[in-house]
């Protein structure tokens, strides 16, 4: 699978056109990624904008950074007639072949039907990979934060976030970013947080929230610092949606 269509970032809950009909002989594919109770899925909408019936669908992923792969075949139970749309939730796992992608969250996909094979690529939000047992024990957090070299620390600003510390903590926890400890330092709320990716990489965070100031400061420490910008993007998406 070599050809890759234009990349688009997936925002949770909002479906995006990944493969326009004019590039796929009338097949339009849009979708989004979700994680619910430990299960990752790719929620697809297939629309037939051609004049002939479509059958024999199948899907395949290229090797990718976190081994994302379909956990089941792409099942379209009836032929897809012209102007018809079908919605399919495709379960994914993370036991596929791994190859570091650029950008890290790039996913290249091939879809076939009775007409041809079509290719597209999309960017998945990293928080579909945040696992449910990502809460680090407090002493372990302190030791790990000290142990990770300072040059692995990245700092970001999250702008225009209307939440207070409690609401932010609760919303992040619903996406498996866990608050390990909380302190108030000179009127600033400091949340110390941890998350773990499906491949076992831990990310530690310090989120500073000044009451009345909608701009948060986020410091991230990780042994694989290239994931930090994508984790920051996940914070942005979770806190603002």
Automatic annotation (TrEMBL):
Principal subcellular localization: membrane
Clathrin adaptor alpha/beta/gamma-adaptin appendage Ig-like subdomain domain segment(s): 11-121
GO cellular component: clathrin adaptor complex; endomembrane system
Domain of life of the native organism: Eukaryota
GO biological process: one example: vesicle-mediated transport
Name listed for the protein in its UniProt record: Adaptor related protein complex 1 subunit beta 1
Keywords, sorted A to Z: Membrane, Protein transport, Transport
Gene3D superfamilies on file: 2.60.40.1150, TATA-Binding Protein
Topology in the lipid bilayer: Peripheral membrane protein
Record-linked InterPro entries: AP_beta (IPR026739), B-adaptin_app_sub_C (IPR015151), Clathrin_a/b/g-adaptin_app_Ig (IPR008152), Clathrin_app_Ig-like_sf (IPR013041), Clathrin_b-adaptin_app_Ig-like (IPR013037), Coatomer/calthrin_app_sub_C (IPR009028), TBP_dom_sf (IPR012295)
Cell location: Endomembrane system
Residue ranges constituting the Beta-adaptin appendage C-terminal subdomain domain according to the UniProt record: 130-240
